[in-house]
Amino acid sequence: MTTTTTTPDQGPATTTGAVPTVTGAFPTVGEQLAHVGSLVRAARQHRGLTQAQLAERLGTSQSAVHRIEQGAQNVSFDMLTRIGAALDSPIVTLGAPQHTHLRVHGGLQLSGRLDVNTSKNGAVALLCASLLNRGTTRLRNVARIVEVDRIVDVLRSIGVRATWSTDGRDLEIVAPRRLDLGGIDADAARRTRSIIMFLGPLLGLEDTFELPYAGGCDLGTRTVEPHMIALRPFGLSVTATAGNYHAVVTDPGRRDLTVVLTERGDTVTENAIMAAARRDGVTTIRNASPNYMVQDLCFYLELLGVRVDGIGTTTLRVHGLPEIDADVEYSVSEDPVEAMSLLTAGIVTGSEITVGRVPIEFMEIELATLAEMGLRYTLSEEYAARNGRTRLVDVTVHPSELRAPIDKIHPLPFPGLNIDNLPFFAVIAACATGETLIHDWVYEGRAIHLTDLTRLGADVRLADAHRLFVSGPTRWSGAEVSCPPALRPAVVILLAMLAAKGTSVLRNVDIIARGYEQLQERLVELGAHIETFRD
Ligand SMILES: CC(=O)N[C@H]1[C@@H](OP(=O)(O)OP(=O)(O)OC[C@H]2O[C@@H](n3ccc(=O)[nH]c3=O)[C@H](O)[C@@H]2O)O[C@H](CO)[C@@H](O)[C@@H]1O
Ligand SMILES: C=C(OP(=O)(O)O)C(=O)O
């Protein structure tokens, strides 16, 4: 693997803003370019990125970034917007903040093949777990999504060296002997819920530390109490004040521990596993989630020399190592939720498309449910993912007459219908004949966002915040909709727009980049007509 070799050149924190008003003569083009260049440089340094790292995020060369910062290159508005997105900070603001919108010309059949990318949830767990390793971790095929960028920003801010390969696919991570937790990028941390997964690795490294509160999508209240309960047996106690968790760690006084999780949650399981990994002893974790991201984490830990018994089951035994120092390379596994998203694009447009590299163990119940709804699909032979462990297939969906299922559709912790795949059944049910009950018992607020489907002609009624009745088939019609502030519902509305004849506009779609890499561009590869525009 070739990697860029530069290290972050930290500079003074400077804020970005509008191109300044200049008194006297109107500034020349050269003066304006120089000013824009200095804004880009300041925003980049504020993020702790090198020119090479920003260039990677933009898909351009380091010398191009250098010229922009010197004011020696004309910069298009499009490029400025991309720089703003890459740095999570708008460079030029004229009036209201700039957002990205999509114009969708729907009602077209799609065709062709798309491969599933690696998962957001696996990547963030592995990034947090890399804190456990003194050696070099190479994560291969990491999804280039905003959620990953945020955790990478947080890691860099505490002194971790995180370097993208020149092709931008692999990430090399080396944690320092001593983390600089005082320097943590609280802004990036507060934008992601995954920051909560720093607790597990950190409690084996520090006696006291502080972390900013976890944030994330608007899905209603999401408690972190199960994490506190799970980590208490490891000696962690946490108080929360003034936007921060204050953590104190004491020795639990026993070598071997048994931890019983009160919820079979994914990140809570990952936290318990990471806390167990650096202990000199065996930790038994009961009611563990066996879901895909947890498996990714366990496969990585095994490479580090940490034995984990029971991977893929609800009882894990983690044989911890007090010192972990290994140079390892791990390929993140494919994302079942992206698989579901892409398959839904084919299903709701009545198309024949092939979705390659589907992690079938994590899609079986979804496909069985779709078969009950009349979906015709074919599966290829199984083959191994790059991690050598996850089983993949290619799934081809064929145009089908869909009918509502007799029973309600509801999610469960794995093995069950994936909670993050449930929203896609709303748009699929809207294409089916009859009434479907979708029961999202999990999130307090996610189902509510799906009522935006009515804007496109669907008959979607909330019985309460958790139960959604969807009656179809829908005569879809184009409409303008503001993107819901939640990742999966946002994609569901976009996919409904692909089904709707005529032109639709989805406003402010920035949230989609949190979990999907170039989704609209990849849908265009299948024949979708989607244009991106800005205010
Ligand atoms: C980074 C990451 O990996 N995120 C995933 C992870 O988030 P994460 O692990 O953070 O999920 P939460 O802990 O927020 O759990 C999601 C919801 O499920 C409820 N719950 C969960 C398990 C259980 O046995 N009982 C129960 O009631 C929780 O109270 C909460 O309301 O898991 C969620 C549920 O699969 C997924 O939507 C997220 O994409
Ligand atoms: C809810 C989700 O993720 P997160 O835990 O990152 O908010 C999701 O991926 O749909």
Automatic annotation (TrEMBL):
Its primary localisation, in coarse terms, equals: cytoplasm
Q: Which PROSITE patterns match?
A: HTH_CROC1
**So what does this thing catalyse?**
phosphoenolpyruvate + UDP-N-acetyl-alpha-D-glucosamine = UDP-N-acetyl-3-O-(1-carboxyvinyl)-alpha-D-glucosamine + phosphate
Example GO molecular function term? Answer: UDP-N-acetylglucosamine 1-carboxyvinyltransferase activity
> What sequence ranges are listed for the domain HTH cro/C1-type?
40-94
Q: Where is this region: Disordered?
A: 1-21
Instruction: Report the InterPro entries cross-referenced here.
Output: Cro/C1-type_HTH, Enolpyruvate_Tfrase_dom, Enolpyruvate_Tfrase_sf, Lambda_DNA-bd_dom_sf, MurA_subfamily, RNA3'P_cycl/enolpyr_Trfase_a/b
EC nos: 2.5.1.7
Q: Where in the cell is it found?
A: Cytoplasm
Query: Which Pfam families does this one have?
Result: EPSP_synthase (PF00275), HTH_31 (PF13560)
The pathway entry for this protein reads as: Cell wall biogenesis; peptidoglycan biosynthesis
Checking SUPFAM superfamilies in the record gives: EPT/RTPC-like (SSF55205), lambda repressor-like DNA-binding domains (SSF47413)
Record has Cell wall biogenesis/degradation as a keyword: yes
Q: Which UniProt keywords apply?
A: Cell cycle, Cell division, Cell shape, Cell wall biogenesis/degradation, Cytoplasm, Peptidoglycan synthesis, Transferase
Q: Which family does it belong to?
A: Belongs to the EPSP synthase family. MurA subfamily.
Q: Which NCBIfam families match?
A: PRK09369.1
Question: What is its biological role?
Answer: Cell wall formation. Adds enolpyruvyl to UDP-N-acetylglucosamine.
The protein depicted here goes by the name: UDP-N-acetylglucosamine 1-carboxyvinyltransferase
Lineage of source species: Bacteria, Bacillati, Actinomycetota, Actinomycetes, Micrococcales
